[in-house]
Automatic annotation (TrEMBL):
Keyword Repressor belongs to the record: no
Record-annotated membrane-spanning stretches: 166-185
Signal peptide per UniProt: 1-21
Protein name per the record: histidine kinase
InterPro entries assigned: CHASE3, HATPase_C_sf, Sig_transdc_His_kinase_HWE
Lineage, highest ranks first: Bacteria, Pseudomonadati, Pseudomonadota, Alphaproteobacteria, Rhodobacterales
Enzyme Commission identifier(s): 2.7.13.3
Domain of life: Bacteria
Residue ranges annotated for the Signal transduction histidine kinase HWE region domain, each copy included: 213-295
Keyword terms of this UniProt record: ATP-binding, Kinase, Membrane, Nucleotide-binding, Phosphoprotein, Signal, Transferase, Transmembrane, Transmembrane helix
One Pfam match: HWE_HK
Length: 410
């Protein structure tokens, strides 16, 4: 399209240039013709003046002076030469006519000069000479007018062609603009459709992720609830006391679920409080949770991913780890590294030495990985004879450091 526009611009420029050139040529033709006709008129006027002076002398007027005639006779070569030069520039036809007119003028001047020196020439001869002069001068005038008319006709033709060409170029440019607008509209519409399709796909993926997370959480809640009910029923003989403890533990589990789901009404929380709210409800009777680390207020962006990570780790501990059997111990330590990274050590200790049961990789592992990505954190896991040991590192940005405060021990 750019090449087409460039070609149209070049064509328009050439057309306008030709029109201007034709108009300039017509203008120059008019100037040259005016100059040539003026010199022809000067030559004829000179001959008329010479003839008038010559007749005055021939009529024997007393005291008639030959000065005007001689002056006209002397001026004839210069005027005739200028006229011939102008007509030579106009073309061969006018140049020939000019030479003939010059010859007739010189002949007429010679005749008039001879008449003054001797007997006058016959009147018919004089009239014939002047008729020839007028005929040639009229022919020159007609030729000059024809040349001017032709030049103006060429200029008019070029102007008309320029108007038509520029009109077609304008129409082509408007067509190209309309085509470009149409293509831009289609491209924008296609881009909008693609963006809308991508948004729909992203929304579908998010909905699928939420659905899977919901299904996973419901399964985990049922599993943990069943575990709480089973352990409580084994350790309590009084039905009322067992029901009361079961209800309180399920309520604590609901609070932990609320916090780990990002529904905490508090914008900030201390790390120890978060750990207690999310992990403590999973601790079965007879098991132990040990926490150690400085008191610190967490940045807002870490609350939800941390809650999800510790919720999954606690759920796995109940299913496969230290809290899957009575007297199991979970120890959680946290501190700041030299680069001001929050380091959390999650260490499980089975009541009896045996083969740990890490379980299969499922949606819970996916949730942990997604939460780690959201928090820009890392986690190293290893299974030993006593159970799982996980080291989590949460790097803190400059904005996080403004929110975080750490004093004392929790």
């Amino acid at each position: 399209m750019l090449l087409v526009l460039a070609a149209l611009f070049v064509a328009g420029s050439l057309t306008v240039t030709r029109a201007f050139s034709a108009e300039n040529a017509a203008r120059q033709e008019m100037i040259d013709a005016r100059e040539a006709l003026s010199q022809v008129n000067d030559l004829m006027l000179l001959l008329y003046e010479a003839e008038s002076a010559q007749r005055g002398v021939l009529l024997d007027r007393p005291g008639e002076d030959l000065g005007p005639f001689r002056a006209a006779e002397a001026a004839l070569p210069a005027i005739a030469g200028q006229m011939q030069a102008s007509l030579d520039r106009a073309g061969s036809d006018l140049s020939a006519q000019g030479r003939r007119l010059r010859s007739l003028a010189e002949q007429r001047m010679t005749e008039m000069s001879g008449a003054l020196a001797s007997a006058p020439a016959p009147a018919t001869t004089l009239r014939s000479s002047m008729a020839d002069l007028r005929q040639v001068s009229d022919a020159i005038r007609r030729e000059e007018r024809a040349l001017m008319d032709a030049a103006y006709a060429r200029a008019d033709g070029e102007r008309l062609r320029a108007k038509r060409t520029l009109g077609m170029i304008g129409a082509a440019v408007l067509g190209l603009i309309a085509l470009a607008a149409l293509l831009a509209f289609r491209a924008a519409r296609s881009e909008s459709r693609l963006r809308y399709r991508d948004e729909i796909a992203a929304q579908r993926d998010r909905a699928e992720l939420v659905s899977r997370e919901l299904s996973h959480r419901v399964k985990n809640l049922f599993a943990v609830t069943m575990s709480i009910m089973s352990v409580t029923a084994r350790n309590e003989t009084d039905p009322k006391l067992a029901a009361q403890k079961t209800r309180s533990r399920i309520q604590a589990l609901a609070r932990a679920h609320e916090l780990s789901s990002g529904q905490n009404p508090m914008r900030t929380a201390q790390f120890g409080d978060l750990l207690a709210a999310v992990v403590q409800p999973y601790c079965p009777p007879g098991a132990t949770l040990r926490r150690s680390g400085p008191k610190m207020v967490l940045p807002t962006r870490l609350l939800t991913p941390m809650g999800l990570i510790f919720n999954e780790l606690a759920t796995n501990s109940v299913k496969y780890g230290a809290w899957s059997a009575p007297s199991g111990t979970l120890k959680v330590d946290w501190t700041f590294a030299s680069d001001e990274t929050l380091v959390v050590i999650w260490q499980e200790q089975l009541a009896e030495t045996g083969s740990p049961q890490p379980g299969r990789e499922g949606f819970g592992s996916t949730m942990i990985n997604l939460s780690l990505q959201q928090a820009k954190a890392t986690m190293e896991r290893r299974w030993g004879e006593k159970g799982l040991t996980a080291v989590l590192r949460f790097p803190l940005s400059q904005a996080d450091k403004v929110e975080v405060t750490a004093t004392g021990k929790d």
